[in-house]
Amino acid sequence: MNILVINCGSSSVKYQLIDMDKRMTLAKGNVSRIGMSGAVLTHKPFDRPETKVTGEMLDHIVAIEYVIAILLSKNHGVIKTKSDIHAVGHRVVHGGERFTGSVLIDGNVLREIRQLIDLAPLHNPHNLRGINACKKNLPGVPQVAVFDTAFHHLMPPEAYIYGLPYVMYKKHGIRRYGFHGMSHRFVSERAAEILEKPYDSLKITTCHLGNGASITAINHGVSVDTSMGFTPLEGLLMGTRTGDLDPAVILHIMGREELSLHEANTLMNKHSGLSGISGVSSDMREVIEAGNDGHTNAALAFNIYCYRLKKYIGAYTAAMGGLDCIVFTAGIGENSPQVREQTCKGLAFLGVEIDNKKNNEAIGIESVISKDNADIKVIVIPTNEELVIATDTKKLVENRN
Ligand code: AMP
Questions:
Q1: Domains in the chain: how many in total?
Q2: Edge to edge, what strands does the sheet with 222-226 contain?
Q3: What separation in angstroms does the CA of 295 have from each of 56, 280, 335?
Q4: Per-residue DSSP letters for 134-189?
Q5: Domain check: are 237 and 378 in the same one?
Q6: Is the beta carbon of 210 within 6 A of some atom in ligand 1?
Q7: What is the DSSP letter of 353?
Q8: Quick check: CB of 42 below 6 Å from ligand 1?
Q9: Each residue of 121-139: pLDDT tens digit?
Q10: Rounded to whole angstroms, how far apart are CA atoms 384 and 361?
Q11: Which residues are catalytic?
């Protein structure tokens, strides 16, 4: 079964066509600048070099048209006819409390995802656009929605209710939802396989450290707490986001700097984090490089990043009453020995001890980097959210009656 995995942003579409029988990605790519001049489709078949196509792509419908055309094309294609696309799996950011797992998309599901726009105004509308674009381009092909929030749906109320009047939860759905669920699920399941232990016997803390970053406590196979909250702003320090912040600070700054709601939102989401503190970059590579060259604020940003991560690992160990394994994943987690070393430094009292040689060699590859005799295993696992989407899609499509 070939599954087209779609991840839509406001002006972008990322895609992968996965052959689930062979467990291989036939092609992947992305479209950027949708709705702007000079939209670009970058496409990489598994067996040929990457190619780029530019064109006028006024909306997501046209962008998906381009994607399907290149998947079918003589020189760069990997399938013969549209009917070789057996199902489409969509990443949908917010499933609210309604969606606790992946679902086949029908009229009701579409309506309910639309109702959740209030909770995720920056994401769900684009996800819906992607679903509609695929409906138009691939009529009759089953489509599945896989939610970023779903993995966290079993968190206990003490982890998801904020210290606000309870009525805010009841009236406006204000609570911790958590994000990056597909990634936390994928790497934690993989960790259990690597450790050759039943998934539901382990206490695992997964650190998804990409442009956005979150950490999750997975106790006996259930996400019991996670650092992102009502939105993906809370928790760890990120490339351009504040992470945890006293909410009164933002009210204070809004008054002093006479910021509008929109400006305050932009300040917290786009100008803070590694970028805001270092003044150098939101990219951890550049922050580390500048810090090594003596840039004081870059070094400070790096230290804050790792300190906060360490603090969460401690908190989640307490929340779970123990810890068997820490997983590092996503751009920074998979590629930065410096972040992993600095984060785990001083955690020997818990049983966390990194093997420096293994850590330095683990760049973008799966590897156990803890010392052989350490009580807690530390593992680097490249994430694969697309495979989670494709796996759920296949299962739902096969099981429909
Ligand atoms: P992602 O969102 O998972 O694609 O992660 C992107 C981020 O990973 C980039 O912004 C970088 O900060 C980070 N990254 C990628 N490679 C490295 C590396 N070798 N060292 C440190 N950070 C890296």
A1: 2
A2: 222-226, 213-219, 203-209, 325-329, 377-380, 367-368
A3: 43, 9, 22
A4: HHHHSTT--EEEEESSGGGTT--HHHH--SS-HHHHHHH--S-----HHHHHHHHH
A5: yes
A6: yes
A7: -
A8: no
A9: 888 899 999 999 999 999 9
A10: 21
A11: 148
Nearest-CA residue for atom 19 of ligand 1? 335
pTM listed for this prediction: 0.95
Pocket flag, ligand 1, residue 332 (CB < 6 Å): yes
Q: Which of 180, 206, 285 has the most ligand 1 atoms within 8 A of CB, as the residue to mutate?
A: 285
| Amino acid found at 88 | V
Spacing, Cα 286 to ligand 1 middle (Å): 10
Give the residue from 54, 121, 129 showing the smallest Cα distance to 91.
129
Q: Rounded mean pLDDT of the chain?
A: 96
239 CA distance to ligand 1 middle (Å): 9
The C-alpha atoms of residue 150 and residue 25 are separated, in whole angstroms, by 25
- Tens of pLDDT along 297-335? 999 999 999 999 999 999 999 999 999 999 999 999 999
Give the domain extent around 19: 2-147
Domain CATH for 82: 3.30.420.40
In this structure, the answer to whether residues 126 and 246 fall within a common structural domain is no
Residues 90 and 202 in one domain: no
